[in-house]
From TrEMBL:
<dbReference type="GO" id="GO:0005737">
    <property type="term" value="C:cytoplasm"/>
</dbReference>
<protein>
    <recommendedName>
        <fullName>Acetylglutamate kinase</fullName>
        <ecNumber>2.7.2.8</ecNumber>
    </recommendedName>
</protein>
<feature type="binding site">
    <location>
        <begin position="73"/>
        <end position="74"/>
    </location>
    <ligand>
        <name>substrate</name>
    </ligand>
</feature>
<keyword id="KW-0028">Amino-acid biosynthesis</keyword>
<keyword id="KW-0067">ATP-binding</keyword>
<dbReference type="GO" id="GO:0042450">
    <property type="term" value="P:L-arginine biosynthetic process via ornithine"/>
</dbReference>
<feature type="binding site">
    <location>
        <position position="197"/>
    </location>
    <ligand>
        <name>substrate</name>
    </ligand>
</feature>
<dbReference type="InterPro" id="IPR001057">
    <property type="entry name" value="Glu/AcGlu_kinase"/>
</dbReference>
<dbReference type="GO" id="GO:0005524">
    <property type="term" value="F:ATP binding"/>
</dbReference>
<dbReference type="InterPro" id="IPR037528">
    <property type="entry name" value="ArgB"/>
</dbReference>
<feature type="domain" description="Aspartate/glutamate/uridylate kinase">
    <location>
        <begin position="33"/>
        <end position="276"/>
    </location>
</feature>
<keyword id="KW-0963">Cytoplasm</keyword>
<dbReference type="Pfam" id="PF00696">
    <property type="entry name" value="AA_kinase"/>
</dbReference>
<feature type="binding site">
    <location>
        <position position="95"/>
    </location>
    <ligand>
        <name>substrate</name>
    </ligand>
</feature>
<comment type="function">
    <text>Catalyzes the ATP-dependent phosphorylation of N-acetyl-L-glutamate.</text>
</comment>
<feature type="site" description="Transition state stabilizer">
    <location>
        <position position="257"/>
    </location>
</feature>
<feature type="site" description="Transition state stabilizer">
    <location>
        <position position="38"/>
    </location>
</feature>
Length: 300
């Protein structure tokens, strides 16, 4: 697949009409449905990819589909931590979050990154509204108890990393119904109003479940889930995922991503895809394409 955008400015009006007409069955199928989009990786930092992403989201909204964006921000958090002389550390794909790191996570995600995305979507003609899990009392969380994948008797203390207790999506629904595009930062709050850093893939997956989304698209910085030989796996069953995690083929940030994807698929989200966010218009390609793109996660 070519990664360079083609110049189609020479398209005749009749071609343009034909292209749009061909999209009609897909638009009809998804009209009024919710799509949760996890926005992460390179698609978030490359200006050309950013613009294409914003266009896709706005286009979905304008044809009557309800996109909900959940964003990550690993690289941006890493940059600020470095400037402050702190080293990021990960356990099983999750960022170890001490109190100081939590402050940085909140500044970066709920401040800079969220507002950049809101601005990007607005510039493309949409009306985006930024939210954290605290807004509308949306994401209740508690400290995540992380059990070692290889030795269940070992528990890792990774600080203020959150486990989702519940999601109340009413604020998202209210915004959706009123033409807005929600942009959610993955921060939850606890019983004492303390903040939790939650993996964005996990938030996107759970939000897709509670919203009963038609689709969950996870944009990442790789073609999809790869096997040991580095070949793309177009489809994955829960059993195959277990094998790939157990033998270490799936590691790092792909662990929470695939776990979230699988949860969503098993909980009734009809289509769950991990797709290559480095491809311009990855979202439209997936929604309007009939060729397999990235990795589809099956519920059984
Ligand atoms: P993001 O959450 O922004 O999409 P992450 O770095 O958290 O990015 O997760 C994606 C990364 O997971 C990939 O870039 C890759 O390095 C890693 N990874 C680990 N195992 C696999 C695998 N089997 N297939 C694809 N990517 C994998
Ligand atoms: Mg990640």
């Amino acid at each position: 697949m070519s990664h360079t955008p083609r110049d189609l400015s020479h398209l005749q009006p009749s071609d343009r009409a034909e292209v749009l007409a061909q999209a009609l069955p897909y638009i009809r199928r998804y009209h009024g449905k919710t799509m949760v989009i996890k926005y992460g990786g390179n698609a978030m930092t490359d200006p050309e990819l950013q613009a294409a992403f914003a266009e896709d989201v706005v286009l979905l909204k304008l044809v009557g589909i309800n996109p909900v964006v959940v964003h990550g921000g690993g690289p941006q958090i890493e940059t600020l931590l470095k400037r402050l002389g702190k080293e990021g550390r990960f356990v099983q794909g999750m960022r170890v979050t001490d109190a100081e790191t939590m402050e940085v996570v909140e500044w970066v995600l709920a401040g800079e990154v969220q507002q950049d995305i809101v601005g990007l979507i607005n510039r493309a003609g949409g009306k985006a509204v930024g939210l954290t899990g605290r807004d509308g009392a949306m994401i209740r969380a508690r400290k995540l108890r992380m059990v070692d994948l290889n030795d269940p008797s070992v528990e890792h203390d990774i600080g203020q990393v959150g486990d989702i207790v519940s999601i109340d999506p009413s604020v998202v629904r209210a915004l959706q119904d009123d033409q807005f595009i929600p942009v959610v930062s993955p921060i939850g709050f606890g019983e004492r109003n303390e903040s939790y850093n939650i993996n964005a893939d996990v938030v996107a997956a759970k939000l897709a479940t509670v919203l009963q989304a038609e689709k969950l698209l996870m944009l990442t910085n790789i073609r999809g889930v790869l096997d040991k030989q580095g070949q793309l796996l177009p489809e994955l069953t829960p059993r195959r995922v277990d094998e790939l995690v157990a033998d270490g083929t799936i590691s790092g940030g792909m662990i929470p991503k695939i776990a979230g994807a699988l949860d969503a698929a098993k909980s009734g989200v009809k289509a769950v895809h991990i797709i290559d966010g480095r491809v311009p218009h990855a979202i439209l390609l997936e929604v309007l394409g009939d060729q397999p793109f990235g990795t589809m996660i099956r519920s059984h």
